Amino acid sequence: MRKAPRTSPEPVAQIKERRDAALAALIAQVPMIAFMGIRFDRRGDELTAVLPFADKLIGNPALPALHGGATATFLETAAIIELSFQMIWADVESGALAPAGMSMQGLPTLPKTIDFTVDYLRPGLPRDAYARARVNRSGRRYASVHVEAWQDHRDRLFAQATAHFLMPPQNAAE
Amino acid sequence: MTISPPPTLSEEDRLRIGRQLMSALPFSRALGMTIEEMGEGLAVISMPFNKALIGDPETGVIHGGAVSALMDTCGGAAVLAAENGPTGTATLDLRIDYMRPAEPGQRITARAVCYHMTRSVAFVRAEAWDSDPERPVAAATGAFTADRAGR
């Protein structure tokens, strides 16, 4: 028989509330995310960025297709939020970053984009788009992130991107 | 975007192509882009500062995606303005280097040059700056499709 843990595990609803509050606070501080109408779905620590289709996102009215710049903005946003969410994850789990403190002050500085390379694989259709970012390397100063975006079919990507980021200085007092 | 430029373009033709392109692109319009100059395989397009486009709340710096959209639009316009250019184009890839943050409140201007054109591909270099063209905020290189009638 295993010994019972000394403290009972935190109720799942409480953990979820804290994770969702942290994610919401992270997103709410960036005006461009609201301008684009980008949302994030979360399952555990896995994030999926969602870009609901809107007429203003069109770049080729003849097809019609999403503007390459709209797609790039979506991918870059997915990458930055993924990276930032990973940065705060430990503090959210430990409770060090609590919902009450989740104003802009409690959140870390966002990583800065050094470079961004986007690969347009096929036209973005006038449909909702989804993106997931994978942090391939996250060091103290630099991070490299790959992002994939798709629409109706998960394995038919319409765009992918690789980006490098300059990480914000870590708080030495932590 | 598909338009039909005559084989040899005049100054006026190029400006018309630029304006036509701009009015046809809802996302470029939503970001407030304006054509500043068109030349042979050259386009200069600017975008006003807009608080709604901020990507870094701490510094008030515009989101990289907005700069990317400006570079992309400008690159496409340069391709369409090239001599023996295609009737339509789409971005194949675009790499942007963010050299320094754009000054909050400043208009951003991009200048793209289509430096090489094959039958099916156009190669573009672009730069963007806020107040001083000598101090760019970003540089980009991209490959665009060259869509021609009959293939």
Attribute tags:
A: 174 residues; alpha+beta; Thiol Ester Dehydrase, Chain A; 6-stranded antiparallel sheet; 3 helices; B: 151 residues; two-stranded antiparallel sheet
Q: Strands, helices and their partners?
A:
The complex is a heterodimer of chains A (174) and B (151).
Chain A: H1 12-28, H2 31-36, E1 39-43, E2 46-51, E3 58-60, E4 65-66, H3 68-94, E5 112-120, E6 129-138, E7 142-150, E8 157-166
Antiparallel strand pairs in A: 1-2, 2-6, 3-4, 5-8, 6-7, 7-8
Helix pairs in contact in A: 1-3
Chain B: H1 11-24, H2 26-30, E1 34-39, E2 42-47, E3 54-56, E4 61-62, H3 64-80, E5 91-98, E6 108-117, E7 121-129, E8 136-145
Antiparallel strand pairs in B: 1-2, 2-6, 3-4, 5-8, 6-7, 7-8
Explain what this protein looks like in three dimensions:
The complex is a heterodimer of chains A (174) and B (151). With 174 residues, chain A is an alpha+beta fold. Chain A has a single domain, classed as Hotdog Thioesterase (Thiol Ester Dehydrase, Chain A), CATH 3.10.129. Chain A contains three helices and eight strands. Chain A has a six-stranded antiparallel beta sheet, with helices on one face. In chain A, helix 1 packs across helix 3 (68-94). The N and C termini of chain A lie far apart (37 Å). The relative contact order of chain A is 0.17. Chain B is an alpha+beta fold. Chain B is 24% helix and 36% strand. Chain B contains three helices and eight strands. Chain B has helices spanning 11-24, 26-30, 64-80, and strands spanning 34-39, 42-47, 54-56, 61-62, 91-98, 108-117, 121-129, 136-145. The longest helix of chain B has 17 residues, at 64-80. Chain B is globular. Chain B starts with 10 loop residues before the first helix and ends in a 6-residue tail after the last strand.
How would you sum up this structure in a few lines?
The complex is a heterodimer of chains A (174) and B (151). Chain A has 174 residues and is of the alpha+beta class. Chain A has helices spanning 12-28, 31-36, 68-94; strands at 39-43, 46-51, 58-60, 65-66, 112-120, 129-138, 142-150, 157-166.
